[in-house]
TrEMBL record:
Coiled coil: none annotated. It is an enzyme of class 2 (transferase). This is Pyrimidine-nucleoside phosphorylase. It comes from Cohnella cellulosilytica. It comes from the Bacteria. The lineage of its organism: Bacteria, Bacillati, Bacillota, Bacilli, Bacillales.
Amino acid sequence: MRTVDLITKKRDGGELTEAEIRYLIQGYTDGSIPDYQMSALAMAIFFRGMTPEERASLTMAMVDSGETIDLGGIAGVKVDKHSTGGVGDTTTLVLAPLVASVGVPVAKMSGRGLGHTGGTIDKLESIPGFHVEIGSDEFIELVNRNGLAVIGQSDRLTPADKKLYGLRDVTGTVNSIPLIASSIMSKKIASGADAIVLDVKTGDGAFMKEMSEAEELAACMVDIGSRVGRKTVAVLSDMSQPLGNAIGNALEVKEAIDTLRGRGPADLTELCLTLGSHMAVLAGVATDREEARVMLERAIESGEALEKFKAFLTAQGGDASVVDEPERLPAAKRLIEVPARESGYVAAIAAERMGLAAMLLGAGRATKESRIDLAVGIVLRKKIGDPVQAGEPLATVHANEIGAEEAIARIYEAITVRPEPVRPPALVVGEVH
Ligand code: URA
Ligand code: CA
């Protein structure tokens, strides 16, 4: 096989075979195919797209480019959840203990990553003592014992995806639906998932700003899953405003605790119940979504979900007393109210700009090396559709040394207040099975 012939074939709209895709991915991973050829191929895929067979082959070739996690030592169906990113998305922190408390085994690999706030691991590390540096045997053992454990992402999984994603980032080829779909699915499969629940965000704060693109991405990932034997379900959810009220690491931990207690924001609670119901059905602990939802609601009411969270924190070195005494979490020095300048109804809370505001306070990482401030962030006091009087707080800024003035300016840019009533957006806007 000659790489140039395969690039030409794709450029001219041909279909690559599984063997050809494996040759390309193996060669790129071992360095025998250079970046310039792979960038030409990525660009050809960007313009020509990929057939369903090609997407499935690409996904599995990337899975096989590195190590895979064997969760065979854990009893039950391992269902993983993936969210395509958003602003202030606290769902993993809530969902993991919630579904574990009804018997879904949760063996979660999580990362730090770049973004407006830290990744799930950063958020959890705002709990004194909590750590994810556990060996794989201990990880499996903890899931079997407690139903739930979180381990740091191994950098030996899907090396082809890592290399290709970096290349796409600098060659204008990130925004290709087949490349995004196979990238996401390869990572979930390599981390040992038997079944996958996807939360595909759409709207201002999302990767896929248009509903039609989000639907196409969701359908693409569900199709890959079914072709490679991993039952996959996708929920399309609104990111035209931040999810929940808190944007920031320790602030989101507190929000997750409130939600597990049954006192969380309505939208975050609803999304967790929706995603959790799909997880429970795929894991086989409930026969249908209605039954699953009742089980999850009961686990919140009875306190079992919260107890599961405490047991999980303790097992990984964390001080579980923060659950009952959230004032022990890292707290910012200054709390600044951001008052409404006029009366009316909240019409928009541009999620991306709110994320940027949190970033200016130090809640996120701009580069891999930056340190994040776990205490800082923003708590929304109003959501879209809420009435507001001039002078009433729209948000509270939790700030330390940096960024308060700039963050407040961004918050005013993000939030629109209109005189006429506004209907709040629907949260779950679609599903793909
Ligand atoms: N997220 C991923 O993991 N991969 C992509 O290609 C895009 C977003
Ligand atoms: Ca939130």
